[in-house]
Amino acid sequence: MNANDNVVIVGTGLAGVEVAFGLRASGWEGNIRLVGDATVIPHHLPPLSKAYLAGKATAESLYLRTPDAYAAQNIQLLGGTQVTAINRDRQQVILSDGRALDYDRLVLATGGRPRPLPVASGAVGKANNFRYLRTLEDAECIRRQLIADNRLVVIGGGYIGLEVAATAIKANMHVTLLDTAARVLERVTAPPVSAFYEHLHREAGVDIRTGTQVCGFEMSTDQQKVTAVLCEDGTRLPADLVIAGIGLIPNCELASAAGLQVDNGIVINEHMQTSDPLIMAVGDCARFHSQLYDRWVRIESVPNALEQARKIAAILCGKVPRDEAAPWFWSDQYEIGLKMVGLSEGYDRIIVRGSLAQPDFSVFYLQGDRVLAVDTVNRPVEFNQSKQIITDRLPVEPNLLGDESVPLKEIIAAAKAELSSA
Q: Read out DSSP for 77-100?
């Protein structure tokens, strides 16, 4: 690297910002330009469905860095600017205002966008009381409409849908949550964990309806507001506010148009490079081969974005990056903290540590004798211990995992001893 090297980062979310500041912290001396179409100061997204929506956080408290930190680190922040094309031959990105920025290294941190509800096109999608939750503007609009005794219909039983439902219940709204799946959190948790969260929400007052498909909407006479949600089973649900959260689509169009390999994300190698070695990708938009799980994955999480950003900074500055860590996720609903580590896909059994009747347990997902993932509810110590089990692939004794008379740290110590003697 030298003082004339140019790094352009496309995307001003967490991944992009962390790459920029990580480069400076690692000794990068060249130019850094951070480009994104958002017009607000880069900010954290997870609190939008939690503290911010509940009115317990301000926009300023969500900033990833203070506004003056960018100039202080000689990072040029180009907000409100869209990158429309990549010219790989000239090593330039083309901006919406016609400018071209030269790069020696290009980092795509383009993130993702909410998966659209197929039946919510036209006037429905433009209605002020029909929203997805991805941006600060979305959260502000929703927060203004969290009015006591009003009727909220949430479409989608994933993390966002459940977190929004919990916040709305606390605002004394009447909440109905619809999910096409047979249970909430079906894609990411085992049936007992889904049952725990369904019970938790129903006890709080949420009307959860699984196996329910939305087929349309009723609109006000002026076509400005949604007045009811229509379901395939004939149910009509009057609504003052509708929020849809049915997944994320990675923003790969820029990469695809530039001829980069795309497959449910921008495909990258172990060095974070795309099919063009001068272009890297990071965060929600990046698909990579996990060494831990020996399969291709795309992970939507804050910890993954942070880890990959640090890896890019280390690689570009000629340093040795850390080994892959187990991915982890979290969700706060009511006063319950759910923390999950690992990827449970492919598990063939679960072991419960604690009682599912109380908000104080861990669920281990196993494939054979290997622990693939762990869900912990209000057990932060076991969560941290579980990260070690999965990252280090420790051969813990499965029969002991459900026995609370044996501390998890002792199970881990025995597994380490077995590894060292092998």
A: EETT--EEEEETTTTEEEETTS-E
